[in-house]
Amino acid sequence: MLKTVFQDQMPANKHLGLKIEDLEVGYTKIYIPFKDEFIGDFFQNRWHGGILASIADTAGGIAAVSTVESIEDKVSTIDMRIDYLYGSEPRDLYAEAEMIKNGKRIIKVDVKIYHEKEKIIAVGRCAYSVLRK
Amino acid sequence: MLKTVFQDQMPANKHLGLKIEDLEVGYTKIYIPFKDEFIGDFFQNRWHGGILASIADTAGGIAAVSTVESIEDKVSTIDMRIDYLYGSEPRDLYAEAEMIKNGKRIIKVDVKIYHEKEKIIAVGRCAYSVLRK
Amino acid sequence: MLKTVFQDQMPANKHLGLKIEDLEVGYTKIYIPFKDEFIGDFFQNRWHGGILASIADTAGGIAAVSTVESIEDKVSTIDMRIDYLYGSEPRDLYAEAEMIKNGKRIIKVDVKIYHEKEKIIAVGRCAYSVLRK
Amino acid sequence: MLKTVFQDQMPANKHLGLKIEDLEVGYTKIYIPFKDEFIGDFFQNRWHGGILASIADTAGGIAAVSTVESIEDKVSTIDMRIDYLYGSEPRDLYAEAEMIKNGKRIIKVDVKIYHEKEKIIAVGRCAYSVLRK
Fold this sequence. Notes:
The structure is a homotetramer.
Chain A lengths: L1 H8 L1 H6 L2 E6 L2 E6 L16 H17 L8 E11 L8 E10 L3 E9 L5 E12 L2
Antiparallel strand pairs in A: 1-2, 2-4, 3-6, 4-5, 5-6
């Protein structure tokens, strides 16, 4: 159900066109099909850095929310760091998010973005606040 | 000219619908009109955190590029941190970006995102690598 | 009293030799006298970057704790980013920390480190978790 | 030789008392024996967060410098993020640093700090600027 909510009922995610390929407690893998409007500039022909940041935040948020036990628990992003490692290409991307801390009040998630898993294009580190009922 | 390039010729920015209101060396103010697809989820009715990250990266990048002196200089984002301070509302936003370091090889920019300047919703801190000809 | 606790009763701060020059709710200014052992390497003759990070965390923590209302409130650092802007010199430093968010559960603080206020050497951005009784 | 320089000739590192246990190109493992003056406060009896930040910066810097090929290459820290995951104890620590990007001008390093490798206490992400001759 969480999968449907994230993919199809959140406007910004729907627009991103993401598909959740895998979802476990504290882990998710998502697939983001390339669209022309994701290009930063024509010269470099790469994904816009801001779109990659958006993907990192989204994947991290899904992994964080996957750990809550009640529909009333509230998760909100505290902050995020994104590091751009290597240039992206104008083709589909994957993002994997893995929880590195599951605290009573704080959740942290690491995200990797790539075309092929051997070459990571960008990494995100996200902090979430969780209010557990 | 830079203004036109950023607003109208970069696909991701064009889709964001941003307007550059002010542009000086090391400073910019941009305006981003609200669209329904920028909503994170219907319950909270707020801008998607990832879109705010995208806006921070975009505003920071414009301020960074405004400092280069040749069309051959190359600027690329090293990393970015975004902090979410207060909840956003489903209405237009502004982002102001101001350079805090202008080095030979590294540029740093601070970004503030707000509806009204008195209440900052999110702040970004961005590092750029610049290759000067 | 908070001043005495921070300056004189916390071993790491005591070793740093810091003096709290100003302390208000959500704001502090501290003074850190130079010591030879703070040098990173002899060639560059600058403060060790790690010591600056330590100063940022300390100043930020004092500003964060200054906002709590009960001795039972518990503040802990979630994360910190430090940006090195310009080279430091082997002489005394100041750090100013100012709260940018005072939430029910999250506090955020910005820190500036400098010899002279006109030239900021490093900036820190710190997130704290607060458990209010 | 690099090992001796880092351990014994840099004042701040010498004071930290670190020992380099392993050093390869793009990787290092360091050992930091506990000292009373590293305690943040007596109540919690934990390492001072700032000292952990200092350790992260130091380990990251060693891994970064290990990749340079000439003694004239210059490496400087651009920025660092540190995340505190779990409470530390008043006993010896290890830090492992691993390069995640080795670019012409930018190096990035991930750091893990722990008592026992199974439980990471803090993670650092560091960006370095390198000027290669």
